[in-house]
Amino acid sequence: MHRGYSFFQRASRAFNDYPHLPKLLVLFTVSGGGLGAVCHTAFADAGQDADIMKKKRVVVLGTGWAGTSFLKNLKDPSYSVQVVSPRNYFAFTPLLPSVTCGTVEARSIVEPIRNIVKKKNFDADFKEAECYKIDTVNKKVHCKTIQPCHLGGGIEEFTVDYDYLVIAMGAQANTFNTPGVVENAHFLKEVEDAQRIRRTVIDCFERASLPSISEDERKRILHFVVVGGGPAGVEFAAELHDFVKEDLAKLYPALKQYVRITLLEAGDNILNMFDKRITAFAEEKFARDGIQLKTGSMVVKVSDREISTKERSTGQTVTIPYGMCVWATGIGSRPVILDFMKQIGQTKRRVLATDEWLRVEGCNEIYALGDCATINQRSVMEDIAIIFSKADKNSSGTLRMDDFKEVIQDICERYPQVDLYLKKKHLKNFNALLKNSEEDAEINIEKFKTLLAEVDSQMKNLPATAQVAAQQGSYLADCFNRMKVCEGNPEGPLRFRGTGRHRFHPFRYRHLGQFAPLGGEQTAAQLPGDWVSIGHSTQWLWYSVYASKLVSWRTRVLVVSDWIRRSTFGRDSSRI
User: Fold this and answer.
1) 470 CA to centre of own chain
2) Can you tell me the mean pLDDT for 225-249?
């Protein structure tokens, strides 16, 4: 008994001395009928727990282009990642117009986010919930569940702690406070929007085919109006035209004479972000296809049966009867982002402002990327005196060409508008900008200000596109992967407003080109180097590029098979 008791004493002491370590108590009999005990400390498990405690907690809000790109490219196992989003999938949004008409099926363009999470070699998890508040003081995000109430329990709320927060929540459709848009128009931002449009198109044809419908009512029902002459609106109008011409006209031969498609654009042209050659070709093609294009028409009201527009040319208000309206213009910040902006004092902005490293201004450990944010590029003239003083190491008040050698690269990297200005003026480099009639002439601060006075005119906000969001996500993941290395060996440009260097190179967007499918197996492409291609051959380029950009081999196979199915059997007109 005494020996058994000593075993228990030692076991008890081990439990008391190391309460935070997991234990395993083994009981066994010993000679003489006594009872022995061994306390085993699970050091391997304890080491794992300690590693988890040391890991930095990264919370990613959103599973769109920016959030998914960040998640896919993050490789450092020293992070514990929690993804929170009301969508448990990533959607390839450039193909949403194709989903609206059955060219591509909805499930073909989505990838479950858990398929991506499970492949990571670090601690990562996903929660299907909606973030409704960001608490920067306590470093918490407040979330609520979105599952149907009939599952029991109602809406549940919970919080997630973070060390780093990545806001990639995207944006919502911007109605510009136009009356009736939310209640009566269809949007084209989500997969559910595309599916709803597809059902409505079939509903319009089915109702118009009823014998009790009058001639005028039939014309109204089969009038499809698209608001917005950007890429999304133009591509949907083209897809709808092809759907009607190639498939629905065969199924509803008596109705094809009543179908009208109208595209409303408040500006002077459609596709105004493209080359003028593409804009002209698109407008001419739409005219040939019978798609009515009305530019200079600003929508002022949308009712359940009519759209009211104000014509810029005449100033008159025109009423347009319609059967279905698709609102494909503008984006706006989500309510949670607007609330967060009020917290941090960004009330006068439309979207979150970040620095060139995608950090939210005023929040060092919070990053924002994609459509919910914009980079607030610092102006050269704001820092002109500091830039001059950094180059003027001997404080002489004047600079020669040689004095700029050490800071030229940092200036061009820190202020990308300098490079854009040099290209616009056809100047070879920064030295060519500084040179005057005398090679060795000295430059004072006033002369320096004069030379750089027009540089900031080249500052531009990045477009809210999938391409930008994906590059930002990849860039930020790369920064996180090299966080420890760059803490000790910063690789960024010189800190003009401080000492040393920035940890990382600032984000730089690289434009890889853009496409505009125009229907009839014709696509327009504008690629770097002012290269423009339009026609059937460009459609095949569009096919190959979009197939390669899909997030997985599963979605690639599904989308390509959908394209083959459509060309072989046509589009499906079932209302499902």
Assistant:
1) 7
2) 97
